[in-house]
């Protein structure tokens, strides 16, 4: 497991810091030596497939789960063993968990009533929250009569109404259809800007992570492989795991070996020389070459290229994904629709690779060489 150290931007306070947090259920380690820091007001995404520890991480931050080891700081205070009520945190679950017998008004008001807020204050904040979330016309409705998007907004409103320091969102868009997911992503970003709160958002969806996250932590096996901005994760993946999870279509990966000069590589496509030489490499060492589909193109007339055969053409509107076979490897490239329009399955094609965009990883560990 590649573990990045906690970090935060200069000039901002730290809203949340996890240091060496671990939690096991029997022999299963749900989170493992987990460490990261989140700036105040940041939209921070925990990204990875199911069962990598995203939900356990959120539940531990919220106080619903007690860690076996490590520390948790909220606003600079050790809250590892603090009660739920004192953390200033609110969580929206994947299931929404609305009270079916209560109206939208009463669902929104419920947290404030639990806090014994004055009736006038409750009414004021419920109406303000409903206005922000465009639910004013649904305040008298019951959850069963709401659309999926409206239910999601009520669940979100019930958390926002408490004005938490940190909002935790556990795959909140999973139950929505594609159109609503798109609309709600934009709505969540708008609310984040409007309220300026710290958001920790867990998702297995790459598009959600890249479009919403200001900082993304890529998780695997209860730990973090890499933390960075969307651009950093795309341009500078430090492990094949990240390279294969970030970017669509995902990075092309194929076997190679380090040549005697320790800066060029023998590959099925011939000798490749990355513009950035490996920091450490041994002659004959097994490697993996990574090339983004957008960094492969058709070779210009008269340009030396790699001979290939078109295997599949997938038009996607303004771009086309073209899969080619070269040197026994199947590679995908992304071409503008105008260039790809004349390409047909079975055609011969000469392809060129941008050597400034070649990524090299160690075959044994998956760690980046360049």
Automatic annotation (TrEMBL):
The ABC transporter domain, residue ranges: 16-246
Keywords: ATP-binding, Cell membrane, Membrane, Nucleotide-binding, Translocase, Transport
Family annotation (InterPro entries): AAA+_ATPase (IPR003593), ABC_transporter-like_ATP-bd (IPR003439), ABC_transporter-like_CS (IPR017871), ABC_transpr_MalK/UgpC-like (IPR047641), Mo/tungstate-bd_C_term_dom (IPR008995), NA-bd_OB-fold (IPR012340), P-loop_NTPase (IPR027417), Transp-assoc_OB_typ2 (IPR013611)
Pfam families: ABC_tran, TOBE_2
Superkingdom of origin: Bacteria
Similarity comment: Belongs to the ABC transporter superfamily.
Protein name: Sugar ABC transporter ATP-binding protein
Higher taxonomy: Bacteria, Pseudomonadati, Pseudomonadota, Alphaproteobacteria, Hyphomicrobiales
């Amino acid at each position: 497991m590649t573990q990045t150290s906690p970090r935060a931007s200069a000039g901002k306070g730290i809203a949340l810091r996890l240091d060496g947090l671990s939690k096991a259920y029997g022999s299963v380690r749900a989170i493992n030596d987990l460490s990261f820091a989140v700036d105040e007001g940041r939209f921070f995404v925990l990204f990875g497939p199911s069962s990598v520890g995203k939900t356990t991480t959120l539940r531990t931050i919220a106080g619903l789960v007690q860690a076996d080891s490590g520390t948790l700081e909220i606003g600079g205070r050790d809250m590892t063993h603090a009660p739920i009520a004192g953390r200033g945190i609110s969580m929206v679950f994947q299931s929404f968990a609305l009270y079916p017998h209560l109206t939208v008004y009463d669902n929104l008001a419920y947290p404030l009533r639990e806090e014994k807020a004055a009736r006038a204050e409750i009414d004021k904040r419920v109406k303000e929250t409903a206005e922000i979330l465009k639910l004013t016309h649904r305040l008298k409705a019951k959850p069963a009569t709401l659309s999926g998007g409206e239910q999601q907004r009520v669940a979100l409103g019930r958390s926002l109404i408490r004005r938490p320091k940190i909002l935790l969102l556990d795959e909140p868009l999973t139950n929505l259809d594609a159109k609503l997911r798109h609309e709600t992503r934009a709505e969540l970003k708008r609310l984040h800007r409007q309220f300026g709160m710290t958001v920790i958002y867990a998702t297995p969806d790459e598009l959600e992570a890249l479009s919403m996250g200001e900082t993304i932590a890529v998780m695997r096996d209860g730990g973090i492989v890499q933390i960075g901005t969307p651009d950093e994760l795309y341009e500078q993946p430090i492990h094949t795991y990240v390279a294969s999870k970030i970017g669509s279509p995902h990075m092309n990966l194929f076997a190679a070996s380090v040549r005697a000069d320790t800066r060029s590589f023998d590959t099925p496509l011939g000798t490749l020389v990355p513009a950035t030489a490996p920091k450490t490499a041994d002659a004959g060492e097994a490697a993996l070459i990574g090339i983004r589909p957008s960094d492969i193109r058709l070779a210009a007339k008269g340009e030396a290229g790699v001979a290939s055969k078109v295997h599949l053409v997938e038009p996607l509107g303004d771009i086309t994904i073209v899969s080619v076979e070269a040197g026994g490897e199947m590679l995908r490239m992304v071409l503008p629709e105008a260039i790809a329009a004349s390409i047909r399955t079975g055609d011969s094609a000469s392809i060129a690779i941008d050597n400034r965009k070649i990524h090299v990883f160690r075959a044994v560990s998956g760690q980046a060489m360049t």
